[in-house]
């Protein structure tokens, strides 16, 4: 990016001379620039660069599907082949957004189909995808190659059947954590016998049974298959047969094995796994008998990514035994039943660790098995750590200060104490100083989530030091409007701000209304903002959609400006008020 | 594309702060802000644990205690929550079993955790302490003799049964709520008459 900037600034000065460069040369140069951000930067240099870049860009990223209309995207990027769309606000993941809020992909697919876009790749996150959309998608784009759905809903295995049957060039079908209604279909059988192009198939989130014979035959005729993630329904012996067919797998997600296998099946599995020398990423183990785990020890030394966060059946000892073999691990997702001691094993074994996520194994009871000690151990053992998501029982300022010193390279730091307003476990003080140390030390921090007892002071620190911060998540924190004001004033690069159950009101909301046009979105729920405040904001900023959601359908709500707003979601948009909002969403 | 940010050096924004409500209600407004913090606490036991971290203003109208299970907390995806629900946490294995206890003539009900008690004697003692009365002596033939009161419970069928007739485990699995009956009604249940 540095060289790109100097490249741009050189040509900025030489702009007049740019007219003598043929477009094709510029286009060729631009081909090497692939990230959306860099291409956005290119397009802002001058008019001709804008024109050339826009006409040649193939891959587009839309962070908010309501920020722009599909027609406008198609118009600007005629060479569009690959698009990523995000729908619902992030807090929808935690059931804070009412079910029918929106985020439908159908209008986009319909617009692409109508305008004969040569769509090859579609990546969706938190969107509502109907079977009709999938059906239309499958029939409209002859070269369609890749479908990735993350945290989406609204479709069934019937939609998948349409994709399998009609997308003859399909290389990738990747379903991550979607709510799919499983009609126990034959969707897998819908892949034609002549379909041999599969590279990646992930159906781990499907709950129903599949035809094992069909799966085996599909794998057998897919020589390019590199990524395969199975669901619960795939047993040991099928896995073993599949692995024998695909020794070149790079990414493997295993299903569920509740019963101990007899020794013959086990031995066969061990043999099959030993052949898979290319596997770098392992996941799944949804329901596993611990005795099966050693079968995988032979591939552990090569693993760079391990996801055991859906495996509550693997406890302490077996887990650490497995991890001790994984010296090259860069990414680890686990459950907190690993404990602080287990994290010490990780810290001493996985020196290349870059990303760690520790999830709670028992969210209902509210006891996490890890504390600040585990986090400190990781930080001192893994100097390359840059991303962390850590659900824990408790935290201390001292621990956070130590972590900040050990790991100044954090890009993403998300801490979730299960009791969200818990103070420092030793001193009973707020955790302001601890998080202050994190933002002060980690100059490159782009994403931050905080919990614990927190006053306005922590936000003062964030505003002062978190210069690169782009996304901030706040829950049950702060004392007054000042907290939010410090953040809005200080974090120049802020793009997404989401706040729940914190005492920030109209004073903070209206302090700098122009700021919201420089951001993607703002979410505030159970805060102190009132209807009147939101109305004022909406009036001043016509290019923002200010959406109010009130679930207690009081008709006189509309007339009472002093009423506090349950949920407010605002976002910049060029598309105006959206037409698909349900009754309980009111755009001011 | 960075807009010019209006930077308030002293951050004293009172002058520009939107005031809601009638003039002269400023005091209420401030208290509303400072006690909003209390409002947001999700778990009752954390309400007053931050020893001396900051002085809390005593709001005149303390909001009602927040519910124990907050929506959307902890922040993990429903998909993940549902997957982890597989470990069978059935009611029988859960560590608490709260039932309501009403006493004839008492102004409000109480709740007790049946799992705390090992058997009937402990339970009855606890009830006596809670409501300040004495239960008589139990006999299969005559129920609770020597007292105006009879401890009863509502079972799964909705019938009111005398406490003590069935084995403790069976009682635990069928008891939905308790009621301490008094006077003639009690005598009707207690005696063989």
From TrEMBL, chain B:
Its main location: nucleus. Residues 96-183 form the PB1 domain. Signal peptide: none annotated. It is found in: Nucleus. Pfam families: AUX_IAA. Residues 20-75 are annotated as: Disordered. It comes from the Eukaryota. InterPro entries: AUX/IAA_dom (IPR033389), AUX_IAA (IPR003311), PB1-like (IPR053793). Keywords: Auxin signaling pathway, Nucleus, Repressor, Transcription, Transcription regulation. Belongs to the Aux/IAA family. PANTHER family: AUXIN-RESPONSIVE PROTEIN IAA17 (PTHR31734), AUXIN-RESPONSIVE PROTEIN IAA4 (PTHR31734:SF227). Homodimers and heterodimers. Aux/IAA proteins are short-lived transcriptional factors that function as repressors of early auxin response genes at low auxin concentrations. Repression is thought to result from the interaction with auxin response factors (ARFs), proteins that bind to the auxin-responsive promoter element (AuxRE). Formation of heterodimers with ARF proteins may alter their ability to modulate early auxin response genes expression. This is Auxin-responsive protein.
């Amino acid at each position: 990016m540095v060289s790109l900037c100097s490249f741009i600034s050189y040509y900025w000065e030489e702009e007049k001379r740019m007219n003598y460069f043929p477009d094709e040369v510029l286009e060729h140069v631009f081909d090497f620039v692939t990230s959306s951000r860099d291409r956005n930067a290119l397009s802002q240099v001058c008019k001709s660069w804008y024109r050339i870049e826009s006409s040649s860009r193939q891959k587009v990223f839309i962070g908010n599907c309501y920020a722009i209309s599909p027609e406008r995207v198609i118009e600007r990027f005629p060479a569009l082949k690959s698009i990523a769309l995000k729908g619902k606000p992030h807090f929808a993941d935690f059931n804070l957004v009412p079910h029918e809020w929106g985020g439908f992909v159908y209008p986009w697919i319909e617009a692409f189909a109508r305008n004969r876009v040569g769509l090859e790749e579609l990546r969706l996150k938190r969107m509502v995808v109907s079977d009709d959309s999938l059906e239309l998608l499958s029939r409209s784009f002859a070269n369609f190659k890749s479908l990735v759905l993350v945290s989406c809903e609204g479709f069934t295995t019937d939609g998948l059947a349409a994709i399998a049957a009609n997308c003859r060039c399909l290389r990738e079908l990747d379903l991550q954590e979607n709510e799919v209604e499983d009609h126990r279909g034959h969707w897998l059988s819908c892949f034609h016998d002549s379909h041999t192009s599969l590279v990646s198939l992930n159906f781990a989130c499907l709950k129903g049974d599949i035809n094992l014979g069909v799966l085996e035959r599909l794998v057998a005729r897919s020589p390019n298959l590199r990524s395969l993630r199975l669901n619960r329904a795939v047993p040991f012996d099928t896995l073993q047969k599949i692995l024998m067919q695909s020794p070149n797998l790079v990414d493997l997600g295993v299903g569920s094995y509740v019963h101990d296998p007899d020794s013959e099946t086990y031995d066969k599995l061990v043999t099959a796994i030993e052949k898979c020398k290319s596997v770098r990423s392992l996941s799944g183990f949804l329901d596993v008998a611990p005795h099966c785990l050693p079968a995988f020890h032979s591939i552990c030394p090569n693993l760079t990514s391990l996801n055991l966060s859906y495996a509550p059946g693997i406890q302490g000892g077996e887990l650490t035994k497995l991890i001790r073999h994984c010296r090259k691990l860069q990414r680890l997702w686990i459950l907190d039943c690993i404990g602080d001691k287990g994290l010490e094993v990780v810290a001493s074994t996985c020196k290349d660790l870059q990303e760690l996520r520790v999830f709670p194994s028992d969210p209902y009871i509210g006891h996490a098995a890890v504390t600040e000690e585990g986090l400190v151990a990781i930080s001192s053992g893994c100097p390359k750590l840059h991303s962390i998501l850590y659900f824990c029982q408790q935290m201390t300022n001292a621990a956070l200060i130590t972590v900040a010193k050990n790991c100044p390279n954090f890009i993403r730091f998300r801490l979730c104490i299960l009791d969200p307003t818990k103070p420092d476990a030793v001193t009973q003080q707020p955790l302001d100083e601890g998080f202050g140390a994190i933002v002060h030390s980690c100059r490159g921090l782009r994403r931050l989530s905080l919990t614990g007892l927190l006053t306005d002071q922590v936000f003062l620190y964030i505003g002062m030091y978190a210069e690169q911060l782009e996304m901030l998540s706040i829950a049950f924190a702060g004392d007054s409007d000042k907290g939010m004001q410090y953040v809005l004033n200080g974090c120049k690069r802020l793009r997404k701000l989401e706040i729940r159950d914190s005492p920030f009101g109209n004073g903070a909301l209206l302090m700098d209304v122009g700021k919201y046009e420089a951001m993607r979105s703002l979410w505030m729920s159970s805060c102190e903002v009132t209807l009147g405040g939101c109305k004022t904001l909406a009036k001043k900023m016509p290019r923002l959609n200010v959406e109010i959601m009130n679930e207690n359908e009081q008709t006189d709500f509309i007339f009472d400006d002093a009423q506090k707003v349950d949920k407010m979601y605002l976002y910049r948009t060029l598309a105006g008020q959206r037409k698909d909002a349900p009754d309980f969403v009111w755009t001011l | 594309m960075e807009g010019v940010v209006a930077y308030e050096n002293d951050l004293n924004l009172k002058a520009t702060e939107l005031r809601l409500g009638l003039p002269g209600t400023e005091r209420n407004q401030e208290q509303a802000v400072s006690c909003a913090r209390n409002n947001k606490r999700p778990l009752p036991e954390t309400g007053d644990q931050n020893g001396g971290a900051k002085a809390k203003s005593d709001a005149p109208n303390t909001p009602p205690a927040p519910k124990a299970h907050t929506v959307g907390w902890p922040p993990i995806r429903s998909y993940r929550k549902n997957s982890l629900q597989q470990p069978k946490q059935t009611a029988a294995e859960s560590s608490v079993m709260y039932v309501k206890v009403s006493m004839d003539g008492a102004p409000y009900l109480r709740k007790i955790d049946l799992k705390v008690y090992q058997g009937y004697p402990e339970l009855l003692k606890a009830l006596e302490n809670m409501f300040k009365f004495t239960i008589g002596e139990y006999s299969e033939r005559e129920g609770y003799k020597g007292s105006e009161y009879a401890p009863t419970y509502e079972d799964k069928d909705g019938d009111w049964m005398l406490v003590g007739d069935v084995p403790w485990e069976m009682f635990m699995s069928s008891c939905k709520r308790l009621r301490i009956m008094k006077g003639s009604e009690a005598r009707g249940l207690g005696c063989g008459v």
